[in-house]
Fold each of these.
Amino acid sequence: MISRRHILASMALATAFGATLAQAAEQKAFTDAGFAAAQKAGKPIVVAVHASWCPTCKAQVPILSKIEQDPRFKNLVVFRVDFDAQKDVVKQFNVRMQSTLIAFKGATETARSVGDTNADSINALVAKTL
C-alpha cells in the first residue's frame, strides 16, 4: 500500500529531478534558423559535428552531457550536426572531420577543436562561450 509519505517523497524527487533538467543546457539538431536565432539572442553555443560510426564522437558524448548539466552552462545551446547527412552545414562551417566542436559567444566563433576527448580541454572550449 502506498502511504502519504511515499507519495510526498516521490513528488519531492520528481521536483528535484525537474529542477535539474530545467538547469540543463539545450540540445538541438542543427538548423540554420535555430542557429541564427541563438546567435541573435547572444546565447552561448556549441556546434558539435558528429558521425554515428565515429569512436571519438562517441567518447565526446558523455563529456558534453556532463558539461550540459553544469549550472554555469544552463543557457548553452548545443547544435548537433550529422557529418554524413548534413554536408552543406559541414561545408558552411569549414569542417574537415567529424568530432569537431565549435564554440560561439553569440555570433562570434571563440574556439574550435577536432578529435578532442579530454574533458578538461572540452570544458575550457565550452567555457569560452560565456
Amino acid sequence: MVLNILIAFFSLIGLLTLHEFGHFVLAKRCGVKVEEFGIGYPPKLFGKKFGETVYSLNLLPFGAFVRIHGEEGGIEDYRSFIGKPMRQRVLIILGGVISFWIIAAILLSITFSLGIPTPVSDEINQGIVAPQVQIAQVAEDSPAEVAGLQPLDIIKEIKYQDSVLRSDKVNEITNFINEHRGKEITLTIQRWEEIIEVSLVPRLSPPAGEGATGVALVRTALRSFPWYESPWRGITATGQITVAALQGLAGVFSQVLKGEGLPAGASLMGPLGIFDFLRHAWQLGLSYFLYFTALISILLAIFNLLPIPALDGGKLLFLTIEAVRRKPVPQKVEQNITAFFFLLLITFMIFVTIKFDIPRIF
C-alpha cells in the first residue's frame, strides 16, 4: 500500500518536473538566463547554485517550477525572455508541452516492448498474454449502472444458480447474459486490486444499442513487439492517442456548450483522482502502469495547450496578441489576467476534487 502511494506520488511529481525541465532546456538553448530550477514549491528546503542557476528542493510537493530571467516583463536585456525574438519565446513556452509528448512516446515504446494493453478480437489467441474481458462503457440508468459496475472493471466470472462461466471471450459472456435475460445473475469483478461480486437482472427489452445489461465489453490483452519496432510504434501511438483525445475533448465541449452536460459515463478527474488512478495502475503491473502514465502525460500536454491564462496555452495567446498588435500586452494587465485565471483554475480543481475525486475514491 505504502509502496503504491510512493510510486504514484513520485511518478506524478516526475511528470511535472520533466515538464518544467523542457522549459529549462529550451531557455538555455535560446540563450536566456535561468535564475532557478526548483522541485516542489517554496518555502525552500535546500538550494545550490551551479553556474548562473540555483537548483532547489522545496517544501510543497505539488510539482516544479523554472524561474526565467525577464519572463514577467520589465527586463529587456539580451539574456532576458522578453528580449528574445518571438520564435524563440514560443519555443521556450512549448518546451514543457513537448516534454509531455516525448515522455509519452518513450513510455509507450517501453510498453510496446514489454507488452502493451490492447483490444483484441475473440479469435486472436497467439502472441498475446493475459487476455481478459473488460467493461468499456456503462449506459446511464442501466442495470449495470444501478448495480455499480464501472468502466475498466474486469469480468472474472459470471453465474446463474449452478451455471458458471469463466471466459476471456466477449461473445461467450454476451451469449450467457442473453440466455439469462429476466433472471438474476452474479458477476465476479476485479476492480483494480479488489475482487467483488455484483448481482443484476439483464433486461428483456433493452433500449437500442445498449444490450441487456447496458455495458459495452472489450477483450484486452498484453501484446508485445520486437524492440526495434517499439520506438516507432511508441511515437505513432502517441500521435494516435493525441488525436483521439482531441476529438473526445471537442465532443465534450460541443455537448456542454449545447447544454447537454457531460456525455454518459464521462467524469472529470482532478489531481487527487490522477494520483489515485496511478496508484491503482501500478497494482495491475508495470505495462499497465507505464501505459496509463503515458496517457496522463498526453492529456496534460493537451490541457496545458488550452488558451487559458496561467497555462502554457495562455502564454502563447498573449504572444499571439503581441504579434498582431506589434507590441506586448501591458505587463500589469497580463499579470492581473493571469492571476485571475489562476484562482479560477485552483477553484475549479478544488470543485472537481470534492465533487468527483473524493466520492470516487472514498
